[in-house]
Amino acid sequence: MVLMKHNSTRRAIGLAGRINIAVITTLVIGLSVVAWLFASSLTQTREALVQRNLLRESDILYLSIENFMMPGEAPIAARYLEQVAGLGSGFSLGLFRRNGVSAFSDNATIERVNANIGKERFQPRTAPETMIGSMSLERAVFDKATAIPPESMFFSAVKDGKTYKRVYRPLLNLPKCAACHGSDHTIRGVLDIQTDVSDIVREQTVTVVASVGGFALMALVLAAIIARILRAVVVGPVIAIGRLCRNVTGGDFSGHVEVNRADEIGSLAQTVNNMVHGLHERYELTKYVSTGTIASLASGQGPTKAERTLLFSDVRGFTSYTERHGAAAIVEVLNRLLERQAAIIATHGGDVDKFVGDEVVAVFSGGDAPARACRAALAIQTAVAEGHLQFDNLSVGIGIATGHVIQGMLGSSQRADYTVIGDAVNVASRLCSIAKPGQIVVCDFTAKNLPAEGWRLSGPYKARLKGKAEPQRVYLLGSGSTSGSEDTNEA
Amino acid sequence: MKPDRRTLIAVCSAIVMLGLSCARPRPPLLIPDGYASWRRTTDVRLDYPIPGHEDRFRIIHMNDTGFSFSLVQGRSGRVQFPEGTIIAKEIYPTSNPQPADKPVMLTAMVKASSDPDARGGWIWLTKDLATGMEKRMLGDFCVQCHANANEAHPYGWKNPEAVFSDYVFFVPQNGSIGYPAR
Q: By C-alpha distance, which of A33, A9, A97, A92 is closest to A57?
């Protein structure tokens, strides 16, 4: 089975984007809550006012019915309700018996009352049936209104695009009603009042929409202002600091952040500017310190004893050259020559340990250190020969020796170098001093540690080196010849 | 536990506590279990149908506080029950219950004029005798019907002089008003 790993890529949101999202989200939530509270408050107020009005209207009608009925003036009550129902202007009225049948629609009640009081108190009507209102019955709400205990039920209805508020107000069969209507039921009927609230709802909707629109506009303006302020105060400086850091990472120390404020951002910018300045100074210093020193400082490495190959290169005839030329020309040519040699040494994995006047001291590490040192030396001689014009016909002599050395920080607590000491160092220096212009003199150990093929070694020669009692076996690398033959070439 | 989670829990707890503190506390129970040992307000057999209770058999008890009501006789007569009066009406399931039958519920009046739930100076409530739960009747159903006790009505002594009877249909006999209590 092959498992495939999918790496999803997400577009990073910048600091400005995050702040904008946070600001807009906060405003949207806040705006929504305010709009909801506002709309709810308006709706509750409207509902309360409409319900109160409906309740008062039902109270008045209830009392009217009661006062018409008690003296036995049911026909007057019917006519009165009929007239009220015809008022119109968004007002509708209905009256139902407890079973949901429209009141005064037949003679059932008249017959029941006459039976209860035992005489023909009311004559059955022969006129067309009276219908109070024409609204349809909402049975579920009606049943709740006529349950025990009965309760006035308010509800809304939408019809033909208009909004109505409606109430079912139960009429009780009070004890004083029982003489005519009997005591076997609790609810006499239900008053149905409906009022058109479309205008109010429309006005409320317009108010809410206008308010929400206003709030939204305010929120957008506020968000834009906050975002602009944040960009100027926070995001801009942060972006500038980030750009400066990227430039420093790329080796450009020339920039700095222009933030002149006495707040946290200003302090951060000042700190970053100081840091970059410090980094620049240290970077410049690394040009004067060997790679080994820097690595040793970075790793905290202590002194070690190890096999190293030392390469010494010295300009021939430099003393007489300085006598013939001015200081500026000398420094210019010498620096050019030293820089070229240092570059070649670095290319071959060597570490320039130090420059001593016109001399270069380099250290090569690793199993193939002799071969890399020799290749670097050949490259240097070739480069110097080919660039004789730019090096003002100066030439170098090179000595290479391999052996065990002690490598570590040497010097005082104020000034120290990570360098090498040991016999191989002295031998390399002596070999360099006997090398003639364009020559590369290598020690016996170095020559024996070179790969078998690809080298033009001549020798061995015996060389008498300072500090050594016995003559040393040495070789010449590359083209060219020594000034003496074996056993006679002594220094 | 991360501090931000702790903060979140603290905020939620505070909101819940705030909500609980704002919730309306359940009102205390007003009808004691021993109400049945109170004296009755009338010896009339209440098995005839009336609106609100239909034809279910009823027995009305009143605590001793209620029996110390005040009475002014005559056309400007007035009955006034003292604060703390409790009148409890047992409602049986049928019009003719057997001796072993128990009432299913109570409808009660508690005189507490300053209580915000009072209507006409009384708290009107029902008590489920099976669960012991009381429910205050905050509408005008009870008081609207009992308001007829303050004028001539078809029950008991009928209140022919329309004496203000403090919303009580059966005022215990005291002088010439009401019915003998048992």
A: A92
What phi and psi values does residue A405 have, to the nearest 5 degrees? -135, 165
List A153's β-bridge partners, or say none. Answer: A168
- Angstrom distance (rounded) from CA A340 to CA A474: 27
Angstrom distances, CA of residue A169 to CA of A75, A192, A407: 21, 6, 107
A175 Cβ neighbours under 8 A, 6+ residues apart: A183, B50, B51, B145, B148, B149, B153, B154, B155, B169
CB A469 within 8 A of CB A478: no
ipTM over 0.90: no
Q: Which of A157, A178, A203 delimits the end of a domain?
A: A203
Burial category of A282 from C-beta neighbours within 10 Å (exposed 0-12, middle 13-18, buried 19 and up): exposed
Strands A91-97 and B86-91: unpaired
Is the Cβ pair B148, A176 closer than 8 Å? yes
Q: Is A53 helix (H, G, I), strand (E, B) or coil?
A: helix
- Per DSSP, the residues of A15-33 read HHHHHHHHHHHHHHHHHHH
Position with higher pLDDT, B57 vs A259: B57
What's the pLDDT score for residue B136?
Answer: 93
The answer to whether the beta carbons of residues A240 and A257 sit under 8 Å apart is yes
What is the spatial distance between Cα A52 and Cα A56, in angstroms, rounded to a whole number? 6
- The total of other beta-carbon atoms located within 10 Å of residue A6's CB is 4
Minimum distance, in Å, between the CA of residue A275 and any CA atom of chain B:
34
Where do the H-state alpha helices sit in A303-448? Answer: 318-324, 327-347, 369-386, 423-434, 444-448
* CA–CA min distance B139, chain A (Å): 7
Structural domain count of chain A? 2
CA distance A31 to chain B (A): 21
Pair of tokens at residue A166? 């409606």
- Per DSSP, the residues of A388-413 read TTTTTT-EEEEEEEEEEEEEEEEE-S
Q: B64 vs A318, B87, B146, B172, CA distance in Å? A: 134, 10, 22, 12
Rounded to an integer, the average pLDDT of B121-134 is 94
Query: Could you tell me the residue ranges of all domains in chain B?
Result: 34-150
Cα separation, B29 vs B128, in Å, equals 12
Element containing residue B3 per DSSP (H, E): helix B3-22
- Would the pLDDT of A300 be above 70? no
Q: Residue A268 and residue A262: Cα distance in Å, rounded?
A: 10
Q: End of a domain among A182, A203, A224?
A: A203
A348 and A468 together in one domain: yes
Question: Residues of B with CB below 8 A from A176's CB?
Answer: 148, 151-154
Q: Which fold has domain B34-150?
A: Chalcone isomerase (3.50.70)
- Domain containing residue A140: CATH number: 3.30.450
Q: Fill in the DSSP letter of residue B177.
A: B
Domain range holding A454? Answer: 301-477
Quick one: DSSP state of residue B37? G
pLDDT at B2 over 80: no
A144, A171, A176, A181: best to mutate for the B interface, most B CBs within 10 A? A176
The answer to pTM > 0.80 is no
Identify whether A293 is part of a domain: no
Name the DSSP class of A440: E
